[in-house]
Amino acid sequence: MKLFELTIEDNTDEIFAISVVENPAIQENFLYFNEQKEKMNFAKIDNEERKLVGPILIPDLRIMRVDEQDNSTYEVFFSKKTVAQLAQNYLKKKYVDKATLEHDKKLKGLTLVESWIKESKVNDKSNLYGLSNIPVGSWMGIFQVDRTPEGDKLWNDYVKTGKVKGFSVEALLSHKLIKASEQVTNKDIKELDEEEANIVLAHIKHIIKKDKRFTKGQTLLAESHSDYGDGIKNNAKRGRELNEKNGNKCATQVGKVRSAQLEKGEPISLETIKRMYSYLSRAEAYYDESDMNACGTISYLMWGGKAALSWSRNKLKELGQLELEGQPSIPASSYPGESGTKKKKNYIHPALIGTKD
After folding, report:
1. Could you tell me if residue 213 is inside a domain?
2. What distance in Å separates the CA atoms of residue 297 and residue 124, rounded to the nearest whole number?
3. Contact of 182 with 171, CB cutoff 8 Å
4. Going by DSSP bridges, is the β-strand pair 105-107/166-172 parallel, antiparallel, or unpaired?
5. Residue 201 belongs to some domain of the structure
6. Dihedral over Cα of 202, 207, 208, 209: its sign
7. Are 255 and 68 in contact (CB under 8 A)?
8. Are residues 57 and 149 in the same domain?
9. What is the mean pLDDT of the chain?
10. How big, in percent rounded to 5, are the helix, strand and coil portions of the chain?
11. Domain range holding 269?
């Protein structure tokens, strides 16, 4: 199985929101303060205090993902250095009130009020909350749930009922390959373990997806679209050529695959369109026509540039997938911080939505 380190390469790499979810990929739940504090062995605090405490990111923890291109599984992790830098940048960019519910709906009334990196197993604030088991180097956070209609609903309907149990990040990040995948060969299917069986199944799905018998706009896996114009294709080609002139330093393998798809006019899935719009709408600030050697400009072009931003926006509106706030509703398993095994709305979810380039 491939192993990637999630890294920060330029100012487009960031965590842009934190989501409260039922099944956090870091496998650690948050604690919450309310009238049940005595049963949970908390120190004595105000009954009216409504706070969520827990780890946001844990370093060196491997998280399973699913590749969009062939639906094969792989793992990602964050180093301690990257965790610390992401935490610092999140505060510097004043994203403390950027929150979502299950990576879907935007939340109002939830704010990150305390943030720190755990630097000691013994002498750390996390121990006050019974979180001594959290590894050193983790990004810890305390979130305040406001006393507003939105905050009341979150607290009463989701936190107290246990519908949400932890934090998960939404991010655009670079992928650095650490270990190549191990191939399954010359084995009887009955001898395969669960991981090997998943790899075989992924390859079968990939073959079905390419089957020419399914050429009427539908496949067995997901809806796809190819009605984008030459402007997007030309931008993708230009971005690829600029990247090659710069030694291919400005894009990960995912970005290269995406530009190749767009340049050839190949069909792309709804999830990819969502990812396209999400990335292009945020990264537009880093696109500079006067500096065609800048990685921000090159990466932006490889995703189709401004033409792709306009097309993806209109396509999502046409499909009823664009919320009034101006951001698409992206499936729960589409972020590096969330489990890649959870499915929603019968889509085969990619793991790389939210990645940079």
Report:
1. no
2. 42
3. no
4. unpaired
5. no
6. positive
7. no
8. yes
9. 75
10. 30, 20, 45
11. 225-318
Token digits of residue 212: 């020419």
CB 328 within 8 A of CB 322: yes
Residue 328 domain-assigned (yes or no): no
Q: Residue 72 is encoded by which pair of tokens?
A: 């094969």
**63 plus 136 within the same structural domain:** yes
How many CB atoms lie under 10 A from the CB of residue 53? 20
152 and 57 in a common domain: yes
> Is 172 found in the same domain as 252?
no
Which residue is associated with the tokens 């690829």? 240
Chain centroid, CA 46 distance in Å: 35
Over residues 78-113, the pLDDT tens digits come to 999 999 999 999 999 999 999 999 888 889 999 999
Question: Which pLDDT tens digit goes with each residue over 140-166?
Answer: 999 999 999 999 999 999 988 888 888
**Percent of the chain whose predicted confidence (pLDDT) is above 90:** 28
* Pair of tokens at residue 249: 């330093």
242 in the same domain as 109: no
Give the lowest-confidence range in 1-5, 52-56, 135-139, 200-204. 200-204
Cβ-contact 152, 45 below 8 angstroms: no
Q: In sequence order, what are the beta bridge partners of 100?
A: 19, 106
Q: Which two tokens stand for residue 305?
A: 């540039």
- 203: in domain: no
- Count up the domains in the chain and report the number: 2
